[in-house]
Amino acid sequence: MVDIIQAKRDGRELTKEQIQFVISGYTAGTIPDYQMSALLMAIYFEDMTPLEIGALTDAMLHSGDVLDLSAIPGIKVDKHSTGGVGDKISIPLAPLVAAAGAKNPMISGRGLGHTGGTLDKLEAIPGFNVDLTEQQFIDQVTTVGTAITSATGNLAPADKKIYALRDVTGTVEAIPLISSSIMSKKLASGTDGLVLDVKTGNGAFMKTEERAAALARALVRIGHLAGIKIIALLTDMDQPLGFTIGNALEIQESIAILQNQGPADVRDLTLTLGSHMLLQANLADDLTGARHILEKHLADGSALAKFKEMITAQGGDAGVVDDPTKLPQAKHTIPVLSTEAGMVTGMATDQLGVASMILGGGRQKKGDAIDPAVGIMLHKKIGDRVANGELLATIYAEEAQRPDVQAMVSEAIHLGPTATVPPLVHQVIE
């Protein structure tokens, strides 16, 4: 292990055998944390070649169980987002592509910090079970076309150990480590095609487009080496997606999309990502045709019906679709009013996410309880005009007064004379 640490410290390429030795030894507990920490820091400073990243991903992928989805007929396609504020896209996307005939096995995660987790949002639906067994998962994808669940059993255990170490050693941001972490879990979940939604902007993990593009390229290279269909879209996180931040609120907005309504940006991104998924599943000839298919399933109600079917299959109360009062409701609403006139020029997106977390809508550390009812509803987006005293946002809280959160939300929405609306999709990387 010392030789391997020194080799990477000096900028040399590690062999597949060396990387396998590290991952199997660390997973088994024969390599101590202090040596793994040294190697992670060497990787942080010296980077890794595409072949090294591919070998690292493969070793982490095979450190535990790999799902066998061969019993599910057809091409299995999935989508992964690097996370952002108000990013509820998976929730309308999964039933929409399933209604169009795609098989969509989706293993998702929980929220930590200012980004929300898909599983937490779904658990706002009374009774919804996100802990399916492997067989339940396979059966539901086969019959319903989609299922969203937590990681089952022993998927990529090396990643769990290494991620926990990265979190306390200042090595989280290393692109080889991020990309191998994401792709080891996704490849272990048995998908044939993967559409990546890599966020960029002040509310994203990758703040600059340059860093986001570097991560996207690394992810796509791993997918190609693994032999799956893969494409990455760099999408905007300089403002929250849609108008809602918070678990039950985001479920309501997701339902609105499936009712062929809802915010334009959430609808557009759902259709864009879904179109690429249909292409990967060989269910359309081009993006225009794929989008037309998806728009038809929104318009005729079949996507909404598929969502109800999915909720029922996972033990939830599908009545929330027609009666949103069945979702958890906050005790109080608190207005945030503008103190000046102007145009919304920008937002401190991560600050809005943190404000929702402080209300109880997110976790500061693993294991924190979540209040599904609380959150924030925005009433303005970048480029919208605002009058003095106009409503900028509504806070949903358990307390009648939250001046701390009011101040955070107010300060996060920036006004000025003119604004440039950021594009929703910045780049497509194949």
Automatic annotation (TrEMBL):
GO MF annotation: an example: thymidine phosphorylase activity
EC number per UniProt: 2.4.2.2
Top-rank taxon: Bacteria
Keywords: Glycosyltransferase, Transferase
PROSITE patterns the UniProt entry points to: THYMID_PHOSPHORYLASE (PS00647)
Domain Pyrimidine nucleoside phosphorylase C-terminal stretches: 343-416
GO biological process, one term: pyrimidine nucleobase metabolic process
InterPro entries tied to this protein: Glycosyl_Trfase_fam3, Glycosyl_Trfase_fam3_N_dom, Glycosyl_Trfase_fam3_N_dom_sf, Nuc_phospho_transferase, PYNP-like_C_sf, PYNP_C, Pyrmidine_PPas_bac/euk, Pyrmidine_PPase_CS
Catalytic activity: thymidine + phosphate = 2-deoxy-alpha-D-ribose 1-phosphate + thymine; uridine + phosphate = alpha-D-ribose 1-phosphate + uracil; 2'-deoxyuridine + phosphate = 2-deoxy-alpha-D-ribose 1-phosphate + uracil
Cofactor(s) listed: K(+)
GO cellular component terms listed in the entry, alphabetical order: cytosol
Function: Catalyzes phosphorolysis of the pyrimidine nucleosides uridine, thymidine and 2'-deoxyuridine with the formation of the corresponding pyrimidine base and ribose-1-phosphate.
Assembly: Homodimer.
Family recorded in the similarity comment: Belongs to the thymidine/pyrimidine-nucleoside phosphorylase family.
UniProt name for this protein: Pyrimidine-nucleoside phosphorylase
Organism this protein belongs to: Schleiferilactobacillus shenzhenensis LY-73
